[in-house]
Amino acid sequence: MISFLIYRLVIGVYVLGIKVASLFQPKAKLFVDGRKGLLDKIRRSLINEERRRIWVHCASLGEFEQGRPVIEALRVQHPDYAIILTFFSPSGYEVRKDYDGADHIFYLPVDNLYNAQTFIGLVSPSICLFVKYELWYFYLSALKQDGVATILFSAKFNQDQGFFKWYGGLQREMLSCFTDIFVQDQESVDLLKSININNAIIGGDTRFDRVVKAASQVITLPIAEAFCGSSKILIAGSTWTDDEQLLCKALPSLPEGWKLILVPHEVHESHINEIVRSYENDVVKWSEWSGSSDRKVLLVDKVGFLLQLYRYGTAAWVGGGFGKAGVHNVLEPAVYGLPCFYGPVFHQFIEAVDLVEQGGAKVVNKPEDLIGLLSSFHNEAIYRRMAVAAKEYVMSRQGATEKVMTRIDQYIS
Q1: Residue 186 sits in which domain range?
Q2: What does the radius of gyration of the chain's CA atoms come to, in whole angstroms?
């Protein structure tokens, strides 16, 4: 009971905080504005939808990419169902609100009893899929009460999470609402068993299927081709300030014949200008490309095609490894067989740990480390070992989507 009251209080405080933040933060304003009249919008959108429905929920853009292989498989294997896709965060909804793999795309109304019951009444899903971690008490309780098969997939649990603490009763109750829980590894199965959750299945991570499929879809980027020429390319993806500073210090000592493509995580004008000042005359912006350039750095000041850019790389720097949240997606460069480098904060991501252990990635703490590793690639055997290890790691872990789809088919065939 106390946990329940605390949950309601936390949700209320969060919503209030977002409303205050919306006065001066664009992302918070999108969160608030996107939920104005939301239930009425959903009602109008679905009023003429006569097909049975599958509801897929993603927290944000990362979870969407993780869930995308399943969504696309649903579209192919169950075309007679309407797919309802929801997001909690503006960074997911605003980027994918026009995604053609779903029939209806909405923000998820804030989790409370009225919203959850009303939303589920309007959507009336035949089955519901949650991606990775996004758990909401009132929604899950309503789904369970209505007898809707509810699947969590690509989940990864560790002993530091609240589910496994003395205060995690409400979180454990949420887990008990799932019909099936597909997890990435045996450790997750064992942890769930320790709290009497016995319906976990090792299914792997659907992100492997996603990056393999995406990498097979060749998209030509003329600016990248023109910049790269015959040079060796270090592609730095999803970088933050600490990454950019390290790369800037390393730039003058890059081995002969190497160039840098820099893809910041944040591309707002002030940050792009800050990078230009730091790199001075070495940088040309993607948006200002004129057909040719003798600069050593191509600064990508647009979003949406990092995965395809990695195709042009010789090696990859994956950003985020100096920040609290940790390194970004290492699978995207690895699928192309790029040796990967990143900072020391990566242990919370099993794929980043595995990639280091299997020889496809190296941890870098200072510019001199990076220069030494790139210089070692003059030895083709050293380069090939890292490149093969990176690609084989990704290719050997496909198949999670098929496992999830097999279970879905049992509920809706």
Answers
A1: 18-205+398-412
A2: 23
